Amino acid sequence: MLQHLANLVAATTIAGTLCAQSEIAHFSFQNDDLTSTQPDFATVSDLNVSNSYMFAGPSADRSLCLTGGWRFNGGTLSFTVTPDASTSIDYTELLWDPDNGSSSDPTVDAATVRANGNVIATLNSLQDESYEILDLTGIAALQGNDSPVTFEIEFHGASGRDPYEIGRIVLSGGVCAPNVELGRFDFENDDLTTAQPSFANVSDLQVDNSYMFGGPSGNRSLCLTRAWRRDGGTLSFTVTPNANTAINYTELLWDPDHDSHADLVVDGATVRANGVVVAVINTLNLNSYQIIDLSAVAALQGNSDPVTFEIEFDGAHGYDIFEIDRIILTGGCCVPEITSIHPTELPQLTNDCFFFNGDCLDTVQAVKFNGTSIPGGSGPYPGAYGDPFYTIMGPNQIKVCPPQCLPVGTNEVRFVFPNGEIVRNVDTTLNNTVTVLCQPQHQVGTEQCVFISSGPQPGPNNLFLGLSNSNSPSVLTGIVDMGIGDQFTNLLCLNAPPGECVKLCIGVIHPAAVGTSSYFQAVAWNFGNTILPLPISPVCESQYVN
Questions:
Q1: Contacts of 20 (CB under 8 A, 6+ apart)
Q2: What is the signed CA dihedral for 270, 275, 279, 282, rounded to 10 degrees?
Q3: What confidence tens digit (pLDDT) does each residue in 129-150 have?
């Protein structure tokens, strides 16, 4: 039976899993104990059982048997997940797998599942040998959670002759830690393997010249032997992120060590990531560990593709072999998050933009405004004036400039990341007066367009555009009071297209206009209900540049 929780809780605002899904807790009872395998990003407490139990079954199929008292009185299984510091978890599934090899007649009357005391599911009539999966993705409190969470399965009694058996309990989720070990080669077992992180696969270390292992059990080293002193050589390994996972790489460390001598010096080393040089180090002295800062390498931030790291040594001089105690690569999942928007609303015509603030926003791949992809660039206008665009201001901010003349109402802004999407809404309002918007600096040789809005004036309005190269006023007392046109002697009046917010193009600007300005002012005239003096906009100046 699959229990869905969508009708119990509100959906999250993030579409798609932003972290790699992995097992957080796995109780398999194979060793006749109640402990879970421990992930590398959290601590999972032992399973607590509130009534009598035993273990039964063959070694490969051991089960937790909930015995006599459970059939009559029920009981509770519980455990707690405590994320490591600076780690958040998106919980996705809780599974338990009943099993009874001898008979299938125990039936649990009901079960209640809680997270930190809050009911997240109620199940009735649980049949033996029918596993349960609870979908946790719609529970807002269990998404991006960096606090301890206690999961509790309360059984309310069972019918049947035999004990109710559970083969395993598995909790899964997406885990994004900002800085964890991705690969660690410490050579204690005379091999070149590394512990595997939860959100990537790391290949074995490749050594392209002769080597051996040396040193005592507690201080084993990889020894690069004579050929290395003469010719140098390369160590390499590859990190392959899990599907739907992006990694921010932070540091690569290796720790040379030699207990008996300190006279061996490596002539130099080059560090590459996917063949691109990320560091060059000259004269590596023995007993001096190296840390390569990867956080500023743009190609290694928010990377969802395999990355091969390579350390190429250029040879050494001295008497002894070159020893390396350990190689460690650190990094973490990048978790895009939008925490605030400023402002949350803008008028139909504006040169202002929305600023979305949060974390890991520099990994954005695309931005869609009301379902249409918009260009990215440094601005102020990477496309035509008045077209929408976005600018990545840094890891904590994205600027989104909306298109002009949007309808009044709510707009959807969708941010597309390598491993998911975030959706936020912003609002468009009327301008508080008749408005004309022109490009402050317009390049000659290109078409110039301006935008006009009737603002709050009751309509329907006919819109007119006044154009002049003089900012001396033109006044007809009681009728119109304009700030341009030199008393109508230097004034061109254009009819705007129909509508309350429109775009009007005046043509390509001749190169001879460089260094001059045009002044624009809009007039709104409701022929059916004329208001005098006629409502006009503030003056907009556009300077012409090369």
A1: 174, 175, 176, 198, 199, 200, 241, 242, 243, 244, 245, 333
A2: 10
A3: 556 788 898 888 898 788 999 9
Residue 67 half-sphere exposure toward CB, CA atoms < 13 A? 6
pTM: 0.56
Place of tokens 């009911």: 119
Pairing outcome for strands 345-347 and 420-429: parallel
CA distance 65 to 199: 33
Angstrom distances, CA of residue 62 to CA of 77, 172, 528:
17, 21, 86
Region 309-334 average pLDDT? 81
CA angle 415, 176, 328 (to 5 degrees): 125
CA atoms within 13 A on the CB side of 360: 27
Q: Which residue has the higher pLDDT, 338 or 125?
A: 338
| Alpha carbons 213 and 191: distance in angstroms, whole number | 8
Q: What Å distances lie between residue 374 and 382, 384, 400, CA to CA?
A: 10, 12, 9
**pLDDT for residue 11 is more than 60:** no
Residue pLDDT, tens place only, 510-527? 999 999 999 999 999 999
The helix (run of H) or strand (run of E) holding residue 226 is helix 226-231
Number of continuous H segments (helices) and E segments (strands) in the chain: 2, 47
**Alpha-carbon separation of residue 305 from 193, 200, 302, 373 (angstroms):** 21, 10, 9, 24
Backbone angles phi, psi at 497, to 5 degrees: -60, 160
